[in-house]
Amino acid sequence: MSSESFSYALHVAAKASGIDTLQLDCQNQSMPTISADEVVVQVMAAAVNPSDVKATLGIMPHAVFPRTPGRDFAGMVVAGPDALKGLKVWGSGGDIGITRNGSHARYLVLPVGAVKEVPKGISMEEAGAVGVPFVTACEGFSRAGGIKAGQTVVVLGANGKVGQAAVQIAARAGAKVIAVQRQDELEGFACNDVEVINSTHTEPATRIMDLTGGKGANLVFNTVDKVYWEVGHAVMAKGATQIFIIATKGQTVAFDLFKFYRGMHNFVGIDTLALDCIRSCELLDELRPGFEDGTLKPFPVAAADMIDLPNAMQAYKEVLSGAKNRMVLKP
Question: Hey, what CATH class is 133-272 in?
């Protein structure tokens, strides 16, 4: 049987009212035709992100139908400029799988500028699962002006995937990292020591101010909506910046305008859906040295969490229900 018989793409014709009504069809996919400034990537691994699933359910307002979902990928260039053919590449994008066909397919068409070589030393499955969380964390710190060695960085919700990525990036930059979460042990990796605060039995704002000698944090990365808003606002040093990602529409908080003014504070909102595949790939490439020298590590991908494309609904349901592991499709 030819390999072409196993060329599939997930297809979503229209948004669903819920996961039980989602029609996630696995359709035959032929080799795409491309223009001179495009490539075809044969996808070897593609993570399933919460935003992938939510987009199929109509929660993401930018999502268009019909289309193939999937924002993250790792694979091999099989068509395009000769210099790129055969290259193993990775990428992500706020447009991939949202406004253009995505990575939950055997073949993915992208602009030439949206693919970069996979870092040496990590597997294709790992590369395909790096995407959205690390892009989000990297863009957050970039828009906040970057991290300087010796600064104090507080990550609120450090056990989530974006939180884990933020901890890794801040530790690599030489910051004093304080991870606030609802467990004792740090989830994931950090190349330097990290102070962990379990907010279930320790009041985080008081502990952070003690750890910083009353000065507070230079950067606060808030990954969990309004849950830690008061903590984040309370621990900002003079001139500090707080970075937000908001997953739930309609989140409102009481804002102390006087404290904001007197503290000379900055607030940065991050929406990776606004980052196209070229910009997202540039951010991933900025992280390449860390993945290659071991100061950054990809999320582990267990064999049980590698799912064949025809069984993608299993991964979608697990991710929507809050799976802690990275679920990766294997087209």
Answer: alpha beta
